[in-house]
C-alpha cells in the first residue's frame, strides 16, 4: 500500500508489489542510476524559485505526505497488537472496539490527507505548467521573425508541450517520490528497528541491496534495448512514409505485394527488438518477488528464533512482515525518481534557454509613440540578413509622397519582400535609413509604426476562427458594417454570403476549406478594415483572376486616396497603375519609372508585360477576351 | 478532405472493435493457453507462500514444537515455491508480450496490405501523413491495449481469484465476508470510469485547443505582431490555458477521490473487518493466528492489482478509439480497377487507341471530354496543354489507375480492362514527373523488386539512358547508398535513374510525364539524348512542357479544358497559328526574358 499515484496522463508509472510487468516507455529509462542522474537532482534547485513562491502549498503538501507515511505505520502495528491479545487471551470486546475505532479513524484521516496532498502538490505542479506556458507564449509574442525562422514550429511546440510536461512531472511526481521514499522508507525502518528488533531489521534488509542492484542493472539494459526498439519503430515509420509517398511508382510497376513483403520484414524487426526488450522487462517482477520472498523467509526464520527466545511476540513478528511489505515501494521509488528528474532537468534547461533569448528588435529610448503619417523615403545603402554574408538589398533610394502607390516587380528572390519588410522594421538596417513622416522608422516605437501599417502577406495566413473574426482581427471591436464594408472592397463579400453560415463560417481545418484566392481576399479585407496610413500588399493578388484583380485595384484607388500603398507582384497588371514602379534584381533596382515610362523603354518590364499578355491569352485557350 | 473519405475520421464503435481485436488472438490460441496455464501456475505458487508460513506459525511456532525434518521440508518448500513461481511468471510475462507483439504485427501488416490495394484515386485525395499515422501511431496505441491493458487485466484478475481461493481454503466464513469488498471495488471502478471518461475527454479537448492555439500563434506570429494583437492573443491564450488547467485540476481531484486513496480506504476497512472477525471469534473459541497472518498478508497483496487495473482504464479508452480508426481504414473500399473478361491477352505491338473517352473524377465535372486518338506501333504522341487541361488524366486512364465509364481504351485492339494487371505493369513503362527514390542503393532503385533483372541488366539500363556517366564516378558505383527521397542526388540525376528503372523492364509502350524541374544544361542534354533513345522504336505517349523537345513527334494533341483543340505535327500546328503557336512563342519569350534581365544587369555594371 503505497502512495504511488501519478498525475493524469502517466497512468503507466505504477510500481506495485506483485505482478507488475513494467512495460511502458516511460519506465524504460528508469532505474538507470549513474552519476549523470545525481546531477539531475539539481533541477530541484533550479525550481526553488517556484517552490518558494508556493511555499505554503509545497510545505503543507510535504507535511501531509510525511503524516500519511507515519499513519501508514499504524495498521500493521494494530495487527500486531490484536494478534498478541488473541495469543495471550487478553482480548476483550472493549479493547477490540477501541482499536477498530482507531483504525477506522486512521482510514478516514488518511483518505482525507491523501486527497489533500494531491491537491497541494499536484495542484502546484500543474499551476507551474500553466505559468511556464503563459511565459513562453508571451515570450514568443515578443520575438521577431528571425527567431521563428531559426526554429521549427514543431520544436517550439515540443518545448511548450513535452518539455513543460516533464517539468510539471518533476514538480509533482518528482517531489512526491523524493519525499515519499525518504519519509516512508525512513519511518518504516526506524519503526521496525525501534519497536520490534534492530537485529531482525538488519537481517530482513540483507537481500534489499541486491534488489536495488538488480533493478538498476536491468534498468540500464532495458534502456539500451528500448532505444533499439524505438529505432526499429522509427525505421518502420520511415518505411510506411516512403511507401505512402512513393505509391505511384509502386503501382506503376505493380509491386504492391513485394512492398508488403518488405513491410513484413521491417515489422519482424520491430517485433524482434521489442521481444528483446520484453526479455529484460519480464525479469523485474520475478526478481522482486524472489528477493521479497527471501526477505520474508529470513524474517520468519530468524523472527521465530526470537519468538522462541521470548525476545519477540508472535504479534510483533506479524507486524514486522507487514512493515517489510511497506518497504518495497520506497526502494523502487528511488529509481523512478532519477528517471523523472533526469528528464525534468533536460527539459527545464531547454525551456529556460528559450526564455533567455533576447528580443532583437527593441524600441529606442525616446522613440515617438505617435504613429507616422506622411512621405516615405528609402535611403538604404546596404542591408543583409544576419545569417547571410550576401547583401539582400543594395542602393535602394527612392521617395514616395503621401498618397502615392509604389509598385515593385522582379523575379522570385529579387528582394521584393525584403524591401517591404525593412519598412516594417522586421530587421534593422546597418547602412542607411528609411524616413517615414520625417523620422527614421526606428525612431518610432514598434507599436506606433505598426499602427500605421496594414499588411497583406504572401502566404495569406488565416486563424481558425470565423470569417468575421479574421477580418476584424486588427480591431475586434469593429461592427458588422465595417467588416462587410472591408469584405466588399476586397471583393470577397459575395463569396462569403454564399456560405451557409455567412460571416460566421469557421475557417481552417475544423471548418470550411477556402481556395487560395478566397484566403488572399480575406487577408486583404483584414488589412483594409483599419484603413491604414500605409497599406502593403505582398504579391497578394496572385491567386485571384484578372477580373477580380481589376475590381480590387479599382476599389483600392478609390478608398486609398491620400494614403500610401505598396504593392509587390509577379503579375504586372497589379502594379501598372502605380505612381512609381521599381524593378528589382539581386536586391538592386534595375529599372524604375511609371508604367508608360517603362513601356517606352526596352527593358525587362516591357518584355515581361508583353509576355504576360500572351500568357493570359494561352490560359484562355487562345481566345482574346 | 473529400466527402468520400470523411467517414474515415470517425472511429468505429467500441463493440465491434473489441470483437475484431479479440479475433486477432485466434491464431495464437495454443500459446495463449500455455501462457494462461503458466500464469495460473505462477500465481498459485505465489499464493501458496503465505499458507506455508501459516502452517509454520500455527503448527510449529505457536505450540513451540520444532522438529527439524518437517521444518526443513517447509523451508525448502517455501523457497522452491518462490523460485518456481518466478520462473513461471517470467515465462508467462514474456509469452503474453510476444503474443501481443505478434498480434499487433499482424494488424499492422493487414492494414498496410489493405492500403496498398486501394486505388490511386484514394491516394490522390487522402493526405499521406494521415495514412502513415494510422498505420504506425494508431497501431502503436493498440499495442498498449494488448500489452499493458489486456495482459495486466488477465494477470491481475487471475491473481485476485487466486487470493480468494486461498482465503476460502483458509476460512470460508471470513472469505465470504471479504467478498463484500468486491462489489464495493466494482462500484468505485464504475464511478471512476464514468466520471473519468467525461473528465479526460474534457481535458484532452482543452489540451488540443491549447496546442492548436499555440501552433497557430507560432505560425501566425508575424500577423499578430503587425496587427498589434499580442496583448489580446496573450489574454486569449491565458484563458485557454486556464481552462485546460481547470479541467486538469478537476481530474486530479477525481483521481484523488476515487483512485488510490479510495482503494486504500477500502483496504483499511477490510483490515478492520478481518481483525474484528478474528477478535470476536477469539472471544468464544480459539483461533489460529497463522490464518490471521495469512489473511492480512493476502489483503496486503489484494489491492495493488486493483489499483493497477483502475489506472489502466484510460489507456483502454484511448486504444479503443485508435483501433476504431484503424479498422475504419481497413474497411474502406476504394480498390484499384480489376481485370475483366476471360483469357490472358498480351501486348505485342503497342498500338494505343482512345475512343470517345469522357472522364470525371468526382462524377460532376468532366476533366476529359470525348477524347479520341490512335498511336501506331513505334510512334510518338505528345500531349501539350495548360495546367488542368487533362494531360495527366489521359495517363491515369491509360495506366488503368482509374476505371473509365464512358468510351473505350484499346491496346492492340483489345480493351484495356481485359488485360491482366501484371501484363500492363510489365509492358507499359511510365516515367513519372517526380522521380521518386527509395531508400537503398542505386542498383535497388533501378531494379526495384524484380529479381529477374540481373546486375548486368541494371548496368545496361543505366548505360542506355546515359546514367552510367555519373554513377561510375561515384566511389561505390551502383552500390552507392540512396538516402530518404534521394536528396543526395541532383534532380537531373534522379531523373536519369528513374529512366533506367523504366528501361530495365524493357517496356513495349513508354509513357512519359516530363519533369518541370530545371536541371543544369549538361544533364539536360543527357536527359534529352536519353529520351530520344528511349522513344526510338517504341510506342510513346509523352506529356511535354518544353515544346522544343517534341518537334519530331508523329502527332501532337493540344488540350484545353479536357478537349482536344488542335492536333497535328509540330510544323502543321505552327502553321495553324492557333494555341500551339502561341504557346511556342510564349516559351521562346520566356527564354528571352531571362536573357534580358542578365543583359540589363550587365549594362548597369
Q: What's this model, at a glance?
A:
The complex is a heterodimer of chains A (625) and B (605). Chain A has 625 residues and is an alpha/beta fold.
Describe the structure.
The complex is a heterodimer of chains A (625) and B (605). Among the domains of chain A are: 191 residues, ABC transporter type 1, transmembrane domain (ABC transporter transmembrane region fold); 114 residues. Helix content of chain A is 61%, strand content 9%. Chain B has 605 residues and is of the alpha/beta class. Chain B folds into two domains: 329 residues, Up-down Bundle (ABC transporter transmembrane region fold), CATH 1.20.1560.10; 253 residues, Rossmann fold (3-Layer(aba) Sandwich). Chain B contains 22 helices and twelve strands. In chain B, β4 and β5 form a beta hairpin. The two termini of chain B are 52 Å apart. Classes of the chains: A alpha/beta (625), B alpha/beta (605). Chains A and B meet through α6, α7, α9, α11 and α12 of A and α3, α4, α6, α8 and α9 of B.
Structural class of chain A: alpha/beta
- Structural class call of chain B reads alpha/beta
Q: Largest chain interface and its two residue counts?
A: A-B, 156 and 165 residues
At the first level of CATH, what is the class of the domain at 34-196 and 330-357 in chain A? Mainly Alpha
* CATH class membership of the largest domain in chain B: Mainly Alpha
Uncertain parts of chain B: none
Would you count the extended β strands of chain A for me? 10
> CATH topology of the domain at 34-196 and 330-357 in chain A, what is it called?
ABC transporter transmembrane region fold
What distance separates the N and C termini of chain B? Answer: 52 Å
CATH superfamily of the domain at 34-196 and 330-357 in chain A: ABC transporter type 1, transmembrane domain
What CATH architecture of the domain at 34-196 and 330-357 in chain A would you give?
Up-down Bundle
Estimate percent helicity of chain A.
55-70%
Look at the structure and give the mean pLDDT of chain A. Answer: 86
With helices defined by DSSP (H or I, 4 residues minimum), what is the helix count of chain A? Answer: 24
Amino acid at each position: 500500500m503505497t502512495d504511488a499515484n501519478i498525475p493524469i496522463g502517466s497512468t503507466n508509472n505504477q510500481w506495485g508489489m506483485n505482478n507488475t510487468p513494467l512495460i511502458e516507455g516511460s519506465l524504460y529509462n528508469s532505474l538507470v542510476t549513474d552519476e549523470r542522474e545525481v546531477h539531475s537532482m539539481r533541477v530541484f534547485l533550479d525550481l526553488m524559485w517556484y517552490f518558494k513562491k508556493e511555499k505554503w502549498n509545497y510545505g503543507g503538501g510535504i507535511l501531509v505526505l510525511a503524516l500519511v507515511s507515519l499513519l501508514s505505520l499504524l495498521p500493521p502495528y494494530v495487527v500486531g497488537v490484536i494478534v498478541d491479545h488473541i495469543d495471550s487471551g487478553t482480548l476483550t470486546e472493549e479493547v477490540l472496539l477501541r482499536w477498530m475505532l482507531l483504525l477506522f479513524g486512521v482510514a478516514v484521516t488518511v483518505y482525507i490527507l491523501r486527497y489533500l496532498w494531491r491537491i497541494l502538490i499536484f495542484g502546484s505542479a500543474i499551476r507551474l505548467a500553466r505559468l511556464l506556458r503563459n511565459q513562453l507564449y508571451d515570450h514568443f509574442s515578443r520575438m521577431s521573425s528571425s527567431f521563428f525562422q531559426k526554429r521549427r514550429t514543431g520544436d517550439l511546440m515540443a518545448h511548450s508541450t513535452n518539455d513543460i510536461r516533464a517539468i510539471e512531472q518533476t514538480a509533482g511526481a518528482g517531489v512526491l517520490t523524493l519525499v515519499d521514499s525518504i519519509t516512508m522508507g525512513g519511518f518504516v525502518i526506524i519503526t521496525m528497528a525501534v519497536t520490534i528488533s534492530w537485529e531482525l531489521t538488519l537481517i530482513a534488509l540483507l537481500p534489499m541491496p541486491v534488489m536495488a542492484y538488480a533493478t538498476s542493472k536491468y534498468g540500464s539494459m532495458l534502456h539500451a534495448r528500448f532505444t533499439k526498439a524505438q529505432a526499429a519503430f522509427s525505421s518502420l515509420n520511415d518505411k510506411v512514409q516512403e511507401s505512402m509517398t512513393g505509391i505511384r511508382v509502386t503501382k506503376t510497376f505493380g509491386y504492391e505485394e513485394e512492398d508488403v513483403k518488405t513491410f513484413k520484414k521491417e515489422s519482424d524487426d520491430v517485433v524482434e527488438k521489442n521481444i528483446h526488450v520484453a526479455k529484460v522487462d519480464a525479469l523485474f517482477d520475478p526478481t522482486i518477488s524472489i528477493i521479497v520472498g527471501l526477505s520474508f523467509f529470513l524474517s520468519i526464520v530468524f523472527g521465530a528464533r526470537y519468538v522462541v527466545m521470548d525476545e519477540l511476540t508472535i504479534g510483533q513478528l506479524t507486524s514486522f512482515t507487514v512493515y517489510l511489505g511497506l518497504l518495497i515501494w520506497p526502494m523502487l521509488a528511488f529509481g523512478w525518481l532519477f528517471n523523472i528528474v533526469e528528464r525534468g532537468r533536460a527539459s527545464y534547461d531547454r525551456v529556460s534557454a528559450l526564455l533567455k533569448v533576447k528580443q532583437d528588435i527593441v524600441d529606442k529610448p525616446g522613440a515617438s509613440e505617435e504613429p507616422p503619417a506622411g512621405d516615405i523615403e528609402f535611403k538604404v545603402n546596404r542591408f543583409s540578413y544576419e545569417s547571410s554574408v550576401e547583401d539582400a538589398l543594395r542602393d535602394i533610394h527612392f521617395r514616395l509622397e503621401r498618397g502615392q502607390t509604389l509598385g515593385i516587380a522582379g523575379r522570385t528572390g529579387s528582394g521584393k519582400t525584403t524591401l517591404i519588410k525593412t519598412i516594417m522594421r522586421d530587421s534593422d538596417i546597418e547602412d542607411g535609413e528609411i524616413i517615414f513622416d520625417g523620422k527614421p522608422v526606428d525612431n518610432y516605437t514598434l507599436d506606433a509604426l505598426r499602427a500605421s501599417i496594414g499588411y497583406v502577406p504572401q502566404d495569406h495566413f488565416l486563424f481558425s476562427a470565423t470569417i468575421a473574426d479574421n477580418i476584424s482581427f486588427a480591431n475586434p471591436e469593429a461592427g458588422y458594417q465595417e467588416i462587410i464594408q472591408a469584405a466588399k472592397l476586397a471583393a470577397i463579400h459575395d463569396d462569403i454570403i454564399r456560405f451557409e453560415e455567412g460571416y460566421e463560417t469557421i475557417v481552417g481545418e475544423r471548418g470550411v476549406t477556402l481556395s487560395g484566392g478566397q484566403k488572399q481576399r480575406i487577408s486583404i479585407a483584414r488589412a483594409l478594415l483599419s484603413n491604414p496610413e500605409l497599406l502593403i500588399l505582398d504579391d497578394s493578388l496572385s491567386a485571384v483572376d484578372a477580373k477580380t484583380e481589376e475590381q480590387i485595384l479599382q476599389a483600392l484607388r478609390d478608398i486609398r486616396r491620400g494614403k500610401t500603398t505598396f504593392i509587390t507582384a509577379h503579375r504586372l497588371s497589379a502594379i501598372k497603375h502605380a505612381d512609381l514602379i521599381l524593378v528589382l534584381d539581386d536586391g538592386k533596382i534595375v529599372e524604375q519609372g511609371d508604367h508608360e515610362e517603362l513601356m517606352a523603354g526596352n527593358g525587362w518590364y516591357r518584355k515581361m508585360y508583353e509576355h504576360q499578355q500572351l500568357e493570359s491569352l494561352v490560359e484562355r485557350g487562345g481566345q482574346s477576351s | 478532405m473529400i466527402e468520400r473519405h470523411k467517414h474515415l475520421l470517425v472511429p468505429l464503435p467500441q463493440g465491434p472493435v473489441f470483437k475484431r481485436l479479440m479475433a486477432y488472438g485466434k491464431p495464437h490460441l495454443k500459446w495463449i493457453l500455455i501462457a494462461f496455464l503458466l500464469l495460473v501456475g505462477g500465481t498459485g505458487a505465489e499464493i501458496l507462500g503465505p499458507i506455508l508460513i501459516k502452517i509454520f506459525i500455527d503448527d510449529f511456532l505457536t505450540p513451540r514444537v520444532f522438529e527439524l525434518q518437517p521444518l526443513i521440508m517447509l523451508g525448502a518448500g517455501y523457497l522452491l515455491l518462490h523460485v518456481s513461481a518466478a520462473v513461471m511468471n517470467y515465462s508467462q510475462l514474456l509469452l503474453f508480450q510476444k503474443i501481443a507483439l505478434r498480434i499487433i504485427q499482424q494488424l499492422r501488416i493487414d492494414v498496410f496490405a489493405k492500403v496498398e490495394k486501394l486505388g490511386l484515386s484514394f491516394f490522390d485525395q487522402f493526405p499521406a501523413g494521415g495514412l502513415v499515422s494510422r498505420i504506425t501511431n494508431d497501431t502503436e496505441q493498440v499495442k498498449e491495449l494488448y500489452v499493458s491493458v489486456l495482459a495486466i487485466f488477465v494477470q491481475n484478475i487471475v491473481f485476485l481469484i487466486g487470493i480468494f481461493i486461498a482465503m476460502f481454503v483458509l476460512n470460508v466464513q471470513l472469505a465470504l465476508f471479504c467478498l463484500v469488498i468486491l462489489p464495493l471495488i466494482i462500484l468505485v471502478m464504475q464511478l471512476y470510469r464514468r466520471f473519468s471518461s467525461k473528465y479526460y475527454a474534457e481535458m484532452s479537448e482543452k489540451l488540443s485547443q491549447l496546442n492548436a492555439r499555440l501552433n497557430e500563434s507560432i505560425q501566425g506570429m508575424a500577423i499578430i505582431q503587425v496587427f498589434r494583437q499580442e496583448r489580446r492573443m496573450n489574454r486569449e491564450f491565458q484563458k485557454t490555458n486556464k481552462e485546460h488547467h481547470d479541467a486538469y485540476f478537476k481530474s486530479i481531484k477525481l483521481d484523488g477521490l476515487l483512485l488510490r486513496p479510495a482503494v486504500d480506504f477500502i483496504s483499511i476497512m477490510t483490515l478492520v473487518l478481518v481483525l474484528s472477525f478474528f477478535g470476536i471469534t477469539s472471544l468464544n473459541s480459539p483461533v489460529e493466528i497463522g490464518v490471521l497472518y495469512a489473511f492480512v498478508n493476502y489483503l496486503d497483496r489484494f489491492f495493488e492489482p486493483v489499483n493497477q487495473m483502475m489506472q489502466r482504464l484510460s489507456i483502454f479508452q484511448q486504444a479503443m478509439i485508435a483501433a476504431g480508426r484503424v479498422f475504419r481504414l481497413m474497411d474502406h473500399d476504394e480498390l484499384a480497377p480489376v481485370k475483366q473478361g476471360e483469357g490472358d491477352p498480351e501486348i505485342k505491338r503497342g498500338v494505343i487507341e482512345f475512343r470517345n473517352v469522357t472522364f470525371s473524377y468526382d462524377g460532376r465535372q468532366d476533366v476529359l471530354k470525348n477524347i479520341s486518338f490512335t498511336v501506331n506501333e513505334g510512334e510518338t504522341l505528345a500531349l501539350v496543354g495548360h495546367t488542368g487541361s487533362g494531360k495527366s488524366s489521359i495517363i491515369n486512364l491509360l495506366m488503368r489507375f482509374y476505371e473509365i465509364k464512358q468510351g473505350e481504351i484499346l491496346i492492340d485492339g483489345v480493351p484495356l480492362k481485359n488485360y491482366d494487371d501484371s501484363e500492363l505493369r510489365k509492358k507499359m513503362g511510365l516515367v513519372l514527373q517526380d522521380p521518386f527514390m527509395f531508400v537503398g542503393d542505386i542498383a535497388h532503385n533501378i531494379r526495384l523488386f524484380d529479381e529477374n533483372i540481373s546486375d548486368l541488366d541494371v548496368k545496361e539500363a543505366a548505360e542506355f539512358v546515359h546514367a552510367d556517366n555519373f554513377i561510375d564516378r561515384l566511389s561505390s558505383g551502383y552500390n552507392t547508398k540512396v538516402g530518404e527521397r534521394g536528396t543526395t542526388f541532383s534532380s537531373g540525376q534522379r531523373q536519369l535513374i528513374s529512366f533506367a528503372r523504366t528501361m530495365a523492364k524493357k517496356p513495349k509502350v513508354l509513357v512519359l510525364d516530363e519533369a518541370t524541374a530545371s536541371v543544369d544544361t549538361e544533364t539536360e542534354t543527357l536527359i534529352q539524348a536519353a529520351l530520344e533513345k528511349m522513344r526510338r522504336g517504341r510506342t510513346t505517349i509523352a506529356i511535354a512542357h518544353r515544346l522544343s523537345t517534341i518537334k519530331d513527334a508523329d502527332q501532337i494533341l493540344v488540350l484545353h479544358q479536357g478537349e482536344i483543340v488542335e492536333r497535328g505535327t509540330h510544323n502543321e500546328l505552327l502553321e495553324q497559328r492557333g494555341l500551339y503557336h502561341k504557346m511556342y512563342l510564349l516559351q521562346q519569350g520566356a527564354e528571352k526574358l531571362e536573357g534580358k534581365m542578365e543583359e540589363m544587369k550587365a549594362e548597369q555594371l
